[in-house]
Design a protein that fits this description.
about 220 residues; alpha+beta; 8 helices; 4 strands; about 10% strand
C-alpha cells in the first residue's frame, strides 16, 4: 500500500484547545477549523481504509459519511449526565458489521486523543443476550477460543463470580466472567500523523482479527 499521512498534528492541537475551552461559543468560532483538521481528515482516512477492511472482514463497513457513518459525533449526549460539557475531546471512529444494529456489535475502533491513541476491537458492553451467546460459544468451542486467547490479552470489566448456568470450574471461567470482550493496541501521536499510519492500523486490526471473527460468529453474523 502507498504511504501517505492522513492526520496532522493540528488535529491534536485542536483537541487540546477544545479540552480547555469546552463550550459552545468557542466551538462555534472554531467550527470551520474542526471541519478542516478533524472531520475532513477522519473521513478521508475512513474512505481509504475501506479496501483494507474488506480484505480483513468483507462484511464490515467503512462509512465515510459526515454523520451516521463510521465517525462518531463530536457532540456529547448530556441529557442524563451531570457532566454538561457539550463536546468530546477525542475522535472516535468505528468500523462495524453491516448487520450490527447497535454500538455493542463487534467492531474495529480507532481512538485519537492527545496522549491516548489506540486501536481496539471486539465487543464493548454487550447486552445479556449477546453475552450469553459469546459465553456459550466459548464453552462449545474451547479449542477455537484457546487460539484467540493464546494471541490476545482481553480488557474491560468482569463479574465477581461466574455467570449463572456456566460451570465455575470451566478452564476458561475467567473469560466466562467477562462483561467485555475487547483488545487494544496502543499508538503514538507520531504514528498517527506519520506516513505509515495506514500500515500500522491495518497491522493492528489484523492482530486483533481472531477476537473479531470469534465474537462475530458467536453472535450469528458472517465474519
Amino acid at each position: 500500500m502507498p504511504d501517505t499521512a492522513f492526520f496532522s498534528p493540528q488535529l491534536f492541537d485542536f483537541l487540546s484547545q477544545l479540552k480547555r475551552h469546552n463550550n459552545r461559543d468557542w466551538f462555534a468560532r472554531n467550527k470551520a477549523r474542526y471541519g478542516e483538521v478533524v472531520q475532513d481528515q477522519a473521513l478521508i482516512f475512513i474512505s481509504s481504509f475501506g479496501p483494507h477492511l474488506h480484505k480483513l472482514c468483507p462484511h464490515f463497513v467503512a462509512d465515510a459519511r459526515p454523520s451516521r457513518g463510521s465517525l462518531f459525533r463530536i457532540y456529547r449526549d448530556t441529557r442524563f449526565s451531570p457532566d454538561k460539557r457539550p463536546y468530546k475531546t477525542h475522535v472516535g471512529i468505528h468500523f462495524s458489521h453491516v448487520s450490527g444494529k447497535d454500538a455493542h456489535a463487534p467492531v474495529f475502533y480507532l481512538h485519537l486523543e492527545p496522549g491516548n491513541c489506540f486501536a481496539a476491537a471486539g465487543v464493548w458492553h454487550p447486552d445479556n443476550s449477546a453475552l450469553t451467546k459469546i459465553r456459550t460459544a466459548i464453552v462449545a468451542n474451547p479449542d477455537s477460543w484457546a487460539k484467540v486467547r493464546g494471541k490476545l490479552e482481553l480488557e474491560g470489566d468482569s463479574l465477581a463470580r461466574p455467570p449463572r448456568g456456566f460451570d465455575p470450574n470451566h478452564r476458561f471461567v475467567e473469560d466466562l466472567k467477562r462483561k467485555d470482550f475487547v483488545v487494544s493496541v496502543g499508538l503514538t501521536e507520531g504514528q498517527v500523523c506519520g506516513p505509515k499510519f495506514m500500515r500500522d492500523f491495518v497491522s493492528a486490526c489484523r492482530a486483533m482479527l481472531p477476537l473479531v471473527e470469534f465474537t462475530t460468529r458467536a453472535l450469528g453474523l458472517e465474519p
